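ok new one. same drill as before - C-alpha cells go in, u give me an amino acid for every spot. 237 of them this time. try not to just spam alanines like last time pls lmao
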C-alpha cells in the first residue's frame, strides 16, 4: 500500500467521521496515536475532549443544548497497565474490562458490533498500543455492517509488530460524506509521520475539514520509559 502524507489523506474527504492514527515517530523514540471526532449535527458538534485520569472522555460543551447523549458521550481513551486503548465509542470500556479479565483485544470486540444508528450503522473502530521494555506493537479493528445490511457484522483486526519509524496506520468510520454515510473500506491507510508532538498535532488538526472538525487527542509515548505527553484541541472554547 502506498504511503501518503497526513495532510493528503485527512484532507481527501470533508467528512471521514471519527478517525484513529497509530504508529511510530520519525525518530523511532515514540509510539504515536491520534483520535479525532467530527460532526454534522448540532448535537455531535456540541462536544469537547477532557482529560479523565490517564485517558480522556467526551462531554457536552453546552449541557443545555445536549440532545441525545447515546453514542456521543463516552471515554475514547483508557490506559490499562502498558496498554493504551483508543476507540470511537463505549467499546473502550468493553476492551478495558475484558482485557482486565484476561481476554484478548479481538475477543473483547467479538462481543460488540457496529453502532445502532440506522441508516448509517456507523462502524466501531478501535486500536490498542502495547509499550513495554522498550518494545512497541499495536492492533487496529473495525466492526461494520455488511454493506449496510444490519443483520450481519463484518469484523476485521489488523496486527502490527515491529512498527517502522515514521510510519502510521489510519482508520476512520466513513469513506466520505453522504446520506447514508458509506462505511470505511479496506485496510488502514499507510501514513508518513513526521515532527514532534506539537508539529504532528498541528498537521492533523489543520488537515481536517474546518466546518466539521470538533476535537482532537494526540499522545506520544516514550517507548523506552513509558512516559507520555498529551495534546488536546477542541474547536469549542
Amino acid at each position: 500500500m502506498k504511503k501518503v502524507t497526513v495532510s493528503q489523506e485527512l484532507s481527501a474527504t470533508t467528512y471521514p467521521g471519527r478517525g484513529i492514527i497509530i504508529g511510530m515517530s520519525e525518530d523511532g523514540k515514540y509510539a504515536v496515536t491520534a483520535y479525532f471526532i467530527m460532526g454534522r449535527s448540532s448535537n455531535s458538534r456540541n462536544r469537547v475532549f477532557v482529560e479523565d485520569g490517564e485517558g480522556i472522555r467526551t462531554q457536552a460543551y453546552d449541557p443545555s443544548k445536549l440532545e441525545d447523549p447515546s453514542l456521543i458521550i463516552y471515554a475514547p481513551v483508557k490506559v490499562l497497565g502498558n496498554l493504551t486503548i483508543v476507540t470511537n465509542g463505549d467499546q473502550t470500556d468493553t476492551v478495558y474490562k475484558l482485557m482486565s479479565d484476561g481476554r484478548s483485544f479481538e475477543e473483547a470486540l467479538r462481543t460488540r458490533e457496529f453502532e445502532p444508528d440506522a441508516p448509517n450503522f456507523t462502524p466501531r473502530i478501535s486500536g490498542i498500543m502495547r509499550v513495554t521494555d522498550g518494545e512497541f506493537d499495536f492492533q487496529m479493528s473495525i466492526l461494520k455492517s455488511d454493506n449496510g445490511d444490519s443483520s450481519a457484522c463484518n469484523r476485521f483486526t489488523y496486527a502490527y509488530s515491529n512498527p517502522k519509524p515514521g510510519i502510521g496506520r489510519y482508520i476512520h468510520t466513513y469513506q466520505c460524506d453522504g446520506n447514508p454515510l458509506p462505511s470505511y473500506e479496506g485496510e488502514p491507510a499507510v501514513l508518513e509521520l513526521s515532527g514532534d508532538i506539537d508539529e504532528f498535532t498541528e498537521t492533523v488538526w489543520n488537515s481536517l475539514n474546518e466546518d466539521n472538525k470538533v476535537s482532537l487527542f494526540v499522545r506520544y509515548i516514550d517507548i523506552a520509559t513509558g512516559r507520555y505527553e498529551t495534546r488536546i484541541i477542541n474547536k469549542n472554547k
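The longest strand covers residues 135-146. and btw The chain has one domain: 4-234.
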